[in-house]
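Hey, resending since the last one bounced:
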Amino acid sequence: MDNFGVFLFLYHFDAFFTFFKFFYLTIIYQKRASVPFIDGTLALLIIWRFRE
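The structure tokens again:
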């Protein structure tokens, strides 16, 4: 599953990620060359979500 697939899963899993729909897509199109940056951001979102 690629980053976008994980994002879609989380987006449908919790309405909270509605806010990150455009935020995450913006990062993808602005930082496409910086995959570690995208992975790090997604990892932080996942950790923050399941920390609660």
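The chain is about 80% helix and 0% strand.

Sorry for the duplicate.
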